[in-house]
Amino acid sequence: MKMTFRWYGEGFDPIPLQYIKQIPGMSGIMGVLDQYAAGEVWPEEDIKALVDQVNAAGLECEVIESVNVHEDIKLGLPTRDEYIKNYCTTLENLAKYGIKVVVYNFMPVFDWLRTELYHENEDGSTCLYYNHADVEGMTPMEIVERTAKDSGGFTLPGWEPERLGRLEEVLNLYANISADDLRENYRYFLERIIPTCEKVGIRMAVHPDDPAWELFGIPRICNSRDDLDKIVTMVDSPANSLCVCSGSLGSNPDNDVPAIFREFGERGRIAAAHVRNVRYLGDKHFQEAAHLSADGNLDMEAIMEALYDTCPDVYVRPDHGRMIWGEEGRAGYPLYDRALGATYLNGLYEAIAKLKSRNN
Ligand SMILES: [Mn+2]
Q1: Residue 272, Cα to own-chain centre: how many angstroms?
Q2: Is 127 part of the annotated catalytic residue set?
Q3: pLDDT per position as a tens digit, 158-189
Q4: Which pathway does the record list (predicted)?
Q5: Which of 243, 320, 337, 344 is catalytic?
């Protein structure tokens, strides 16, 4: 396992690389070039600058999260071929500088969605929070505007200003798209990028939808074990793999998260993993918890054991954290609580490894 940390880049992320390096057991980051909109080619010189900067801090930069997929590709518009070509060029450029895994998602319009970004807990910490009842009373535009206002000046992944301007138009375009249509558009994309990935040695890792259900009547096709199975069989190659996310899949209690990690790990189709906990508050109603099993509803030991048993070389990162100890910053991506998460996950992993080697 390689423990990593999401980092948005100089000028986009308030956390210095040096602080990330100081977290025990941290091997590298999952990096991004946030200045490029979906569909644009990432130039070689910018990729090189990012990798050099991360390496200079004593960290690896082998995973990129995310190279966003242009909406026209998801919609299957004629313009998609140009954007797919650009996507392949970006993949070729990334491979030249040692990138091994690209995390992405195929969620229409909305990446992750929460109804509160700074929900206050009894202990004074804040966390990301979701109540579907609130979503049902709001239009997509209202919820996007509220999220942008709450985000404290940070651009949230999936909520880039460039995309918000087209929200109304894009929502209308999705009105006639079924889940099967979306899956066919996804297949079209994969069939055209996976040969490039195989050639340059990059594994694509799709992140599940978050939360794990349909929003505003727009189809979502990456929510469950069966959805993931359909995706990995569409193009049967290790380059077409998953970034399993315990918190996203775990937002729906019907998903058996450790079993999903174990199955796709055994099938050789997990390239990256996000590990965090959730606490169920009701039907389609949850909050993000500390990583500790006892703080939420997921069995974190079983999740880490599935990774240990099936894909010990996987890139792992703690996922969203709470705001604790007075920290201010990008919602879901603080330093302190994610560092605690990484340390806890490393502790679980060490214990699992030692117990298993002792018993053999
Ligand atoms: Mn995640």
Answers
A1: 9
A2: no
A3: 666 666 677 888 888 888 899 999 999 999 99
A4: Carbohydrate metabolism; pentose and glucuronate interconversion
A5: 320
